[in-house]
């Protein structure tokens, strides 16, 4: 007679630990684990094709002499494009102009955006209309906005000089003077981006708990004190975000200075030529694609350094507040 399967098993001794039963593998487990990567694959594919590859190829081109007329010919130079770039006074002039225009446009822009968001945070009639109106400059084409401002800042028939002349002041050459031309370009950037940042600040303000304002009001804090001690600390991450994004935008500034007078030189004496215009001039005016690629990589590294600097300042501020 054949023994049963139960008779073949040794008897379990008392006190022996019970062995956990092996869990059966669920069908499709591997497919379920790989599904998130499949959903992310299109993004990484597009990023590799249109983001990572151009970035790496630009770095490779920056190490060669490449001319626009003979773009299929590449002569190895190593870091000569970078050393020549650092010895070019026009590069340092463009870097200085980029910094100056960035400060002249970013600081007033964010301060006005913060004030407008604070006003829109209160219960006003027609708040929806004002919020939509804030986005109108951002939705306007940069070409249309720049051409209109170029007419406003015209030397002979501009509205700004007409107002100055009507109050007894001398007219200003807003395109030839260094500081005046940089203020004119900064005014375009400020007009376009103030409303956009104001709506970002408004969204951040609405996430601050109302109990904090009520407690501050009970303690006798005025609206200005509530703004300083409740709104500003609550908006600190949002402020850091807008500073970083505005810094990146100022470093890449191109359309406004290009269309302000209509040339890539940034004025007669390059008085408002930014790094973006300098890159365009090297690549599409002088046809030096290798030097233009080197400028692009210098801009990229500069943006990374500025973003890391802003992050370090924000992290240090958060540590001191704890």
From TrEMBL:
Primary localisation category: membrane
InterPro entries per the UniProt record, alphabetical: ABC_transporter_permease, MetI-like, MetI-like_sf
Region listing for Disordered, in residue ranges: 1-27
Pfam families found in the cross-reference section: BPD_transp_1 (PF00528)
Compartments it resides in: Cell membrane
Keywords assigned: Cell membrane, Membrane, Transmembrane, Transmembrane helix, Transport
Spans through the membrane: 34-57, 99-120, 132-153, 294-315
Top-level taxon of the source organism: Bacteria
Coiled coil region boundaries: none
Name assigned to this protein: Sugar ABC transporter permease
């Amino acid at each position: 007679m054949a023994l049963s399967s139960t008779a073949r098993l040794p008897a379990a001794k008392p006190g022996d630990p019970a062995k956990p039963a092996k869990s059966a593998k669920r069908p499709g487990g591997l497919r379920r684990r790989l599904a998130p990567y499949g959903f992310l694959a299109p993004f990484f594919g597009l990023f590799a094709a249109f983001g990572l590859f151009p970035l790496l190829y630009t770095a490779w081109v920056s190490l060669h002499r490449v001319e626009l007329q003979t773009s299929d010919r590449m002569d190895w130079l190593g870091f000569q494009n970078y050393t020549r770039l650092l010895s070019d006074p026009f590069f340092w002039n463009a870097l200085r102009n980029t910094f100056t225009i960035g400060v002249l446009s970013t600081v007033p822009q964010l301060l006005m955006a913060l004030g407008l968001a604070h006003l829109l945070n209160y219960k006003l009639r027609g708040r929806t209309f004002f919020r939509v109106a804030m986005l109108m400059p951002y939705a306007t084409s940069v070409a249309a906005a720049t051409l209109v401002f170029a007419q406003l800042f015209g030397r002979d028939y501009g509205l700004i000089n007409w107002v100055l002349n009507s109050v007894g002041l001398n007219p200003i050459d807003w395109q030839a003077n260094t500081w005046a031309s940089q203020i004119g370009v900064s005014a375009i950037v400020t007009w376009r981006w103030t409303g956009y940042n104001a709506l970002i600040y408004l969204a951040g303000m609405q996430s601050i708990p109302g109990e904090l304002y009520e407690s501050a009001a009970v303690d006798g804090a005025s609206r200005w004190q509530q703004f300083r001690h409740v709104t500003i600390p609550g908006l600190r991450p949002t402020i850091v975000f807008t500073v970083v994004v505005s810094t990146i935008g100022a470093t890449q500034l191109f359309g406004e200075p290009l269309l302000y007078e209509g040339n890539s030189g940034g004025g007669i004496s390059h008085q408002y030529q930014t790094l973006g215009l300098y890159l365009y001039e090297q690549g599409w005016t002088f046809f030096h694609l290798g030097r233009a690629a080197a400028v692009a990589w210098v801009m990229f590294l500069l943006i990374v350094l500025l973003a890391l600097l802003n992050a370090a300042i924000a992290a240090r501020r958060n540590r001191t507040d704890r």
